[in-house]
Amino acid sequence: MAVHKVALVGAGRMGSLHGRNAAASARLDLVSIADHDPAIAEQLAAETGAQAASFEQILADGAIEAVLVASSTSSHLDNVLAAVCAGKAVFCEKPLSLNADALAAALADIEGTELPVLVGFNRRFDPHLGKLKQRFVAGDIGKAETLHIINHDPAPPNLAFVPRSGGLFKDFTIHDFDTATWLLGEPFVEIFATGACLIEPEVGALGDIDTAKLILRGASGVLCMISNSRRTGYGYDQRVELFGSEGALQVGNVHVANVRQLGVDGGRDEPFLYSFAERYAEAYRTELDHFADVLDGRAAPATGPRDSLRALRIADAAERSMSEAMPVSLAVEDAH
Amino acid sequence: MAVHKVALVGAGRMGSLHGRNAAASARLDLVSIADHDPAIAEQLAAETGAQAASFEQILADGAIEAVLVASSTSSHLDNVLAAVCAGKAVFCEKPLSLNADALAAALADIEGTELPVLVGFNRRFDPHLGKLKQRFVAGDIGKAETLHIINHDPAPPNLAFVPRSGGLFKDFTIHDFDTATWLLGEPFVEIFATGACLIEPEVGALGDIDTAKLILRGASGVLCMISNSRRTGYGYDQRVELFGSEGALQVGNVHVANVRQLGVDGGRDEPFLYSFAERYAEAYRTELDHFADVLDGRAAPATGPRDSLRALRIADAAERSMSEAMPVSLAVEDAH
Amino acid sequence: MAVHKVALVGAGRMGSLHGRNAAASARLDLVSIADHDPAIAEQLAAETGAQAASFEQILADGAIEAVLVASSTSSHLDNVLAAVCAGKAVFCEKPLSLNADALAAALADIEGTELPVLVGFNRRFDPHLGKLKQRFVAGDIGKAETLHIINHDPAPPNLAFVPRSGGLFKDFTIHDFDTATWLLGEPFVEIFATGACLIEPEVGALGDIDTAKLILRGASGVLCMISNSRRTGYGYDQRVELFGSEGALQVGNVHVANVRQLGVDGGRDEPFLYSFAERYAEAYRTELDHFADVLDGRAAPATGPRDSLRALRIADAAERSMSEAMPVSLAVEDAH
Amino acid sequence: MAVHKVALVGAGRMGSLHGRNAAASARLDLVSIADHDPAIAEQLAAETGAQAASFEQILADGAIEAVLVASSTSSHLDNVLAAVCAGKAVFCEKPLSLNADALAAALADIEGTELPVLVGFNRRFDPHLGKLKQRFVAGDIGKAETLHIINHDPAPPNLAFVPRSGGLFKDFTIHDFDTATWLLGEPFVEIFATGACLIEPEVGALGDIDTAKLILRGASGVLCMISNSRRTGYGYDQRVELFGSEGALQVGNVHVANVRQLGVDGGRDEPFLYSFAERYAEAYRTELDHFADVLDGRAAPATGPRDSLRALRIADAAERSMSEAMPVSLAVEDAH
Predict the structure, then answer these.
(1) Is the peptide bond before C95 cis (omega within 30 degrees of 0)?
(2) Which of B183, B261, B264 to mutate to test the interface with C (most CBs of C within 10 A)?
């Protein structure tokens, strides 16, 4: 099996995660790392055995087959376009863009290159969710009637990140929109969203919310409830429950270790894994492994720009629903 | 401790349940049972050691201290009024009425008698929910931010019952409205409700729904999600989860027995208790025990006509929200 | 269905438990209570609506159909013999005797009266263990290979009780001997027992142990491990696990309430029920209900003097195994 | 950090597992693989990017710093001796030998080289057991009183393996002996072992057992129960429970995925991981990572030849206890 030379753009939190996974993969050879802050690029390069480089050098390097884009969200789309235009396959951390119209406009250009672009909706590669979907598709619980998603973060984000995050729905709930669409295998036709700033007043002062509840209706009539919170007090709370005509399937939280302590105040399990980095560590590795399959030509990207656009359109509708305090219809055609 | 002579009005499903509990109680003496079908009254009377009687005889019997009202819903309010006017204390199965305005109009008459009227919101007497509330009130999870209630029935109701049920919100969700208000200890100010007929088309043909999702907002900003379904395929699914600023509290389902079987297809717990009658068996007994406390003069009714009216107003608002497809404000004053 | 007049002998801890259950039963009428301390008898009589009486008065009262024996262990056998000789059916708290030879000698006398004698091995009436046995008998896990019993008390017994308890094996492990025999449906042929005083040195000073591990071998080759401890630090730990050729069945502990709290230190369930009185509350009620069936002539006693003798013989062998530090054979014939 | 060149001796089941882990490690460079069957060595070499070689070539290759010994058990000790005499550090799959006296005799030679020898008791590197030990050492449950280990294999071993396995105690229970000693941090002073052939008569025909129960007593008085079975019908059953003076700690089984299905027959979790290869996959990787630490000079081997000898002495005593049907004392001095 060929080893694919790849470069990384963006050496921050997500870039470091993907860069380390690429360096540890036997199927990828991380050769270059670019960041607008060269010191950060050099530090990660030293750690992973890669070279710091400029994005232009990466694009010009014919030996580099693919680019991992993990720069700041606002530059994702430009970087992806530049990479495919330079003939590189792309793995891009989600979201591809915060602007649905801009993304829709760029779709033709991206797809025109016929180069594979994988968008990092990491949950699609989680083994637990994958098993749930597998059982659902196998008919174990009959026809889907209701989907519940709990997506609660352990603690509010760094306040400096909030203004450029795109807001809760585009930054955070977007994972749920993609997960729900993927699990159910059908588009949503209507959404109602409501939210509040219950946790961190500074988040509200920046115009964002930290708590949200949403109800979506799918094309088949299936109903979906999503709960978001930016604080739990007990680690990462990520649960999915799919109710069907013949039963239900649940994915629960994952504990730090499979240890239980019995004491005077009851039985106590270890805490949940603290954040997405731990909870989805395996999913991130599997995601890159899937990207290697894509580079091998053995698989099409499991999630691409159109999935990203679909989730973004739902996030836009959620914002409108919340601001107008009414349900909003989703134009199913938009996403296809 | 005095033993209180009580009579039962209505010997159907709920009447039999309450009648048997009253007969088994050492604090109540079930002496008379009335039903519009005398044969049913006589059968339950024979089983419980009581006498069949007419409602008029019961009202006229000065030895009878209290009346348990478990007749058909449409007669609840009239029976309660007649009983208190005859000087009897009353335990009335929920809902007191399906018509909020009629109930509001009758409130003064009921309260004018100064006789205690306990309304049977059985969940308030469930030991598991009671423990959750106790821990919440003790501050174990800080300030409430979100409440999730799953209330899924094992199987759709008898179709003959649907037209006189008052509809899903007044018949079924009303328990959730009361539970949520009781647990949070604050009124709701807004509701959004949506529903569908996904399970039993006949229910839809009768103008009702069998699946619903609701979002409520409390006076403090707390958000509440309610999920209703008339079918599970796996017994009675009744879960409550309260998320606070410092943690969460969960009440799960109760299994038929605490037995786990390990086999080639995994570990399997016993099924959940099948329906409300099993799940809340202890709550129904505790409820009557509380009624004996009320008759002893040692307690005020834990839930009375005003709680019933409050829940009914929320159910009315839920219907309006669903039919108008928009959030509806709740007039907090109405209920007090 | 007839209501059976019964009397209680012994108004201590176990006597109060059985007396209250008898008083609350619709099928039994507790009329008299005797205790060597009349004040205690009178107190329980006042609480339960019975009369204090002497044991002689009870035996002479032709209206009394049955006697519940819950006096001190050393008087069990004499009281049972006196009761059956007076023509009364008997329910006797376990153990019938601490002396196997004395019990064996009395067997003919007891059985000669042809009066039913039920011995209170309460676990046989536990719904969870009953469900495990039902599933095993139904063949759900194939042929039994191994049985594990954990029987750990929350805290050491009152030291004053230790000298008259008969020692750990006759007082405590005897439940496990009966449970194991009942669940497996076969006699044991060999036992190895070892113990230690690890918890309370005073127990050791009194010649007893507080911790024990035992291995038994059944007639079919099945192996059984029993673990005993007089202290947990976390309530009553009572678990049974039966491993078969096609799977396993487990009965776990029962929690105070079905509530889970999520916090910074992990997920925490409510404590286990604290002691046998709570854990087996339902079993004790069912046991008396079964005794009412016996009095109705609808059932033979589920556990009788021969079961008591069998368990006692095993306890004797356990003592010998521990003192001689070697396995001891069990004469299967003895018990039949 | 230096990358250490290592060679592998033995390319069978365990050799493949370690070889693949070494090849995937960024800290080890697997350069050579020897097996008495060159075809097997070449196949694994091709897969891992190593070269097939003879053991002699490996010993003679000065560039090779360490040898991973995963040949057949009977050759472990000779291979280890040869490797250390050739100046190589060694990682050896357990057991180092099936003959305690031979191992004791070789100890001086091995230790005389002052080269590190790590013995593969994989469970010491399991994160769940590690967390249990960490909590115990931190004092979370007070003083240890009882340790229970369940070690049940999913299915009997290949019959061809049985005669050269050393028997159940040396092949299988030896893990439990090491785990118990490691967790408790104290030596055992007495053992009682009993066993049977309940599962596979062919195992008995070969002079081995497939089911065993053991009781050990530690120097502090702590009691340890071990249960072994060669069949579960439901995957790998590996549980450890440590009871202390102030509570208990439990390590449970690990499921294939964190998915639960609710259906008419109850709630069902995914099966347990099927065998040691899946259950301890992470432990095997951590073990090699620890070996890299040893090669870096940053750690002493966590388990060495003396631990192997200690466990082997206990296994010998278990065999004697079973054959003589009596407890056997363990000479604590032997192991130190």
Answers:
(1) yes
(2) B261
Give mean pLDDT, residues D212-231: 97
At D18 the three-state DSSP class reads: helix
Chains that touch C (3 or more CB pairs under 8 A): A, B, D
Which tokens in the block code for residue B148?
A: 């999730």
- pLDDT of residue C333 exceeding 60, the answer is no
How many CA atoms lie within 13 Å of A275's alpha carbon, on the beta-carbon side?
10
Please name which of C42, A254, C220 lies closest in space to residue D197, comparing C-alpha atoms. C220
Give CA B203 to chain center in angstroms.
Answer: 22
Query: What was the ipTM of the complex prediction?
Result: 0.94
Whether the CA torsion D109, D111, D113, D117 is positive or negative: it is positive
Nearest Cβ partner of D227 from C146, C229, C231?
C146
Contact between A307 and A41 under an 8 Å Cβ cutoff? The reply is: no
Instruction: Give the integer Cα–Cα distance in Å for C48 and A204.
Output: 63
Residue B32 and residue B50 in contact, taking contact as beta carbons nearer than 8 Å: yes
Give the 3-state secondary structure of residue C223.
Answer: strand
Question: D-chain residues within 8 Å CB-CB of C247?
Answer: 232-234
User: Phi and psi of B206, rounded to 5°?
Assistant: -90, 5
Whether residue B73 is predicted with pLDDT greater than 50 in this model: the reply is yes
* Contact of B176 with B226, CB cutoff 8 Å: yes
Contact assignment for D223 to C234 by CB distance below 8 Å: no
In which residue are the tokens 């009353």 written?
B90
**Which residue, among D301, D274, D299, has the nearest Cα to D84 in the 3D structure?**
D301
Across the interface, which of B23, B246, B249 has its CB nearest the CB of C259? B249
Q: How many CB atoms lie within 10 A of CB C116?
A: 19
Q: How many residues does chain B have?
A: 336
Residues of chain A contacting D, Cβ within 8 Å: 23-24, 26, 127-128, 130-132, 135, 140-141, 246-254, 256-264, 270
Q: Please spell the DSSP secondary structure of D72-115, one letter per residue.
A: -HHHHHHHHHHHHHTT-EEEEESPS-S-HHHHHHHHHHHHHTT-
**Which residues does chain A have within 8 Å of residue B326's beta carbon, measured at their own beta carbons?**
325-327
What is the dihedral sign for C-alpha B288, B294, B298, B300? positive
Q: What is the mean pLDDT of chain D?
A: 95
Using the structure block, give the residue that is written with the tokens 């037209």. B163
Confidence at residue C336, expressed as pLDDT on a 0 to 100 scale = 42
Tokens of residue B113, six digits:
């008698």
Would you say residue D336 has pLDDT above 50? no
pLDDT > 70 fraction of chain B, expressed in percent and rounded: 98
- Where does the pLDDT of residue D302 fall: very low under 50, low under 70, confident under 90, or very high at 90 and above? very high
Query: Distance between CA A149 and CA A13 in Å, rounded?
Result: 25
Cβ distance A255 to A269 under 8 Å? yes
Place of tokens 């061809």: D160
Tokens of B81: 């009024």
Cβ neighbours of A263 in C, within 8 Å:
233-234
> Does residue B95 have a cis bond before it (omega within 30 degrees)?
yes
Give the pLDDT score at A266. Answer: 86
Taking only the tens place, the pLDDT of each residue in C41-89 is 999 999 999 999 999 999 999 999 999 999 999 999 999 999 999 999 9
- Between the CA atoms of D53, D57, D63 and D66, what dihedral angle is there, to the nearest 10 degrees? 80
Q: Check if the beta carbon of residue C180 is closer than 8 Å to that of residue C208.
A: no
The amino acid that residue D205 corresponds to is A
Task: Give me the DSSP letters along C63-104.
Answer: T--EEEE-S-HHHHHHHHHHHHHTT-EEEEESPS-S-HHHHH
Could you tell me the pLDDT band of residue A54, with boundaries at 50, 70 and 90? very high
Helix (H, G, I), strand (E, B) or coil at D212: strand
Contact C146, D196 (CB under 8 A): no
Write out pLDDT tens, residues D86-104.
999 999 999 999 999 999 9
